[in-house]
Amino acid sequence: MEAIIKVSHLTKTFRELTAVNDLSFTVQKGDVYGFLGQNGAGKSTSIRMLLTLIQPTSGSIEVFGYNLQHHRKEILRNTGAVIERPDLYKYLSAYETLQLFAAMSSVKLTRQQYMDQLELVGLAQRANSKVRTFSQGMKQRLGIAVALVHNPELIVLDEPTNGLDPQGIADMRNLILMLREKMKKTVLVSSHLLSEVEQIANRMLIIDKGKKLVEGTVSELFHPDDTVVLIETTNQPACEELLRNSNYATQLIGIDAAGIELKLRKEEVPVLTKMLIENNISILGIHACHSLEDYFLKITTANQHVEPFKN
């Protein structure tokens, strides 16, 4: 597969704060790539570096095979983006908004092409309505129309469902899927909502505190029949050695003071339990995360420190 984005060891510091920490990932041509993490995880900072809005402290970014630092103009000509809430002129109509941004991009379109663009995002019937009369969801969809006005290959969306009601979220989800399936665009979409990313992305990255936790295809990370299991024992080193020398070695996903984590099919849990008992491993507990949300919250909050309450 052709790599559209290749980020290598990207780091961004603001004085004493490290917002992005040695981050590497690859977005392939045709992906809807989910960039997932809780608020403050470093997603927006990473995207701003990708769009040259801020400079990285270290590391490199390649887009379309070109180094971003040396080929900025060529890359941005083929990239469209909506960063959080789109910044639109509220006293212009939807049609006038597209005209303005097309002119700014030195793109010449016919009236029919403008209308086709608005039809694409479900706003053709509101072409002459002022942006100030639009709901937040309509503004988000118009923002995507603006991002598409120069027909870019890569679309970058930063938290596109923020502030939307359930219908607006569904509309945005369908629009993103359409960008990939019908228009053959590559889409990088950041979100803190696992449930939304799971429904639209074919590959995803989860980051926390600026660092990559996991990356892969959605089916690899979150098979619907898989369960993340935490094993607590009285002798963790012996349990770990047993598992590493067993058929479960490839299913180990984490080992820390809390216990040993594996990703298993649900029917494998009792089989694993029997094996541990037969090998004299004393089990304190086996805890299953039954939802993707549980797994996401667990891996993104594992190292968070909560200050004690003080009067």
Automatic annotation (TrEMBL):
GO molecular function, one term: ATP binding
Occurrences of domain ABC transporter (ranges): 5-234
PROSITE patterns: ABC_TRANSPORTER_1, ABC_TRANSPORTER_2
Pfam family, one: ABC_tran
Listed Gene3D superfamilies: P-loop containing nucleotide triphosphate hydrolases
Presence of the UniProt keyword ATP-binding in the record: yes
Keywords per UniProt: ATP-binding, Nucleotide-binding, Transport
Protein family according to the UniProt entry: Belongs to the ABC transporter superfamily.
Record's protein name: ABC transporter ATP-binding protein
Organism: Lacibacter luteus
